[in-house]
Amino acid sequence: MKRPTILVLGAGYGGLSTVVNLQKSIGADEADIVLINKNDYHYESTWLHEAAAGTLSPEQVRYDIKDVINPGKVKFVKAEVQAIDIKGKVVTTNVGTHAYDYLVIALGFEGETFGITGLDKYALSIANVDAARQIREHIEYQFATWSLEDEKDDSRLTIVVGGAGFTGIEFLGELGNRVPELCKEFDVPAEKVRVICVEAAPMVLPGFDPELVDYAVRQLKAKGIEFSIGTPVVEATPEGVNIKKGEDEFEFIKAGTVVWAAGVRGNRLIEETGIENMRARVKVDKDLRAPGHSDVFIVGDCALMINEEINRPYPPTAQIAMQQGDMCANNIIALMKGNRTAEFVPDIKGSIASLGDDDAIGVAFGKKLMGKKASFMKKVVDNRSLFMIGGVGLTLKKGKFNLLK
Ligand code: FAD
Ligand code: NAD
């Protein structure tokens, strides 16, 4: 009998967890496993705010895919997926086409701009490692240019961060530590720099524990971060952003840098597959298959699952993407053996937001944490994902070991 081809699209947390678990569990002669990713490296999306602020190098954030796959069992193809033909069971990339028996779509997230005018063009987004590098270099350019200008435009030194969700808050935490370094490096007086977070909702980190939120806001304000809360960004221009402050009241914030961190959607390729989706996320069946497509699995940020306890979707996180990858591998193996698939139930261990390298807030195993303890736990979690995918070797190579900073 012909060996089935398992085609995995995307080498983020979901895709790599799927592949690593498949290669552990099946023999080389049982299936042809093909992994397609646009780069020959994986990046830790959960560390991108650090690369964007310049507190961690882009090199530290990424590792070679070949370091974690077994070439005897998995064929890696560096290519950009361009189209997914679910009916024809074939995927088109910029370097060729691939037929499949089982497909795993793990193409991750994109920034959501909600159609707000100018954001696509004038705001930067912490979307991948290249985009993170661009943000770091853009901010450095603004500081360097200010230093050289005869007629100084102080708005160059204003950084607006749109969104006070986890991404916005973690990025602000890094900026809080990075701005003093930048001031020293580029001879900029600290009082000239403004970092302003603009949030649409009436609170920072909407829905998160109020005590932890208060702590985070206090700590960030102590580092000079300003907050404009309940004031959605309604437009971005080459000079800055317009925010809505009341029924007919708007304020323009002139800024040299605008970073948009106000939400994510799934990969736009999903929207062209014909599979029903919401903002490029597919409400998958309990065993992670696309409804009505018994050979298509979707994991990570392209998948949507409802938390029935609160009747709301689970948030798109690396924690869930990795657990889905494990389950997806098991379910493909079950199908290959003619067995029943299992239902995916997320095991949420908590969530921790860093506030820079030395501070954090969060809930882990039901316990509230803040300060150094939370920061320690966040680094343990960061190292855990390296360990789960690449074992001790990868953890030693890329891990964070300044645990008690
Ligand atoms: P991704 O990690 O986005 O990977 C998708 C992969 O697909 C990438 O390798 C990409 O290059 C590739 N790809 C995309 N398009 C194509 C294409 N057309 N062709 C080929 N390849 C393609 N979650 C947590 O649980 N904990 C955290 O602490 C946390 N921190 C975060 C911090 C930041 C700054 C951000 C932005 C997110 C954070 N998240 C966190 C959320 C988490 O990063 C995502 O939920 C997670 O990355 C989703 O994993 P994924 O495998 O679905 O996709
Ligand atoms: P999010 O959707 O969680 O937060 C976006 C924020 O932007 C919200 O507070 C929203 O009110 C605000 N917003 C929306 N429109 C706006 C507008 N027009 N103007 C101003 N503010 C606006 O998105 P995120 O922070 O990018 O997080 C995405 C996912 O990644 C989430 O599931 C999150 O849990 C996860 N994540 C987790 C961590 C962590 O666990 N440490 C870190 C980062 C991200």
TrEMBL record:
Keyword field: FAD, Flavoprotein, Oxidoreductase
Cofactor(s) needed: FAD
Transmembrane residue ranges: none
Superkingdom of origin organism: Bacteria
Domain FAD/NAD(P)-binding: residue ranges: 5-325
GO molecular function, one term: NAD(P)H dehydrogenase (quinone) activity
Lineage: Bacteria, Bacillati, Bacillota, Bacilli, Bacillales
Organism from which the protein derives: Sporosarcina luteola
Name of the protein described by the UniProt record: NADH dehydrogenase-like protein YumB
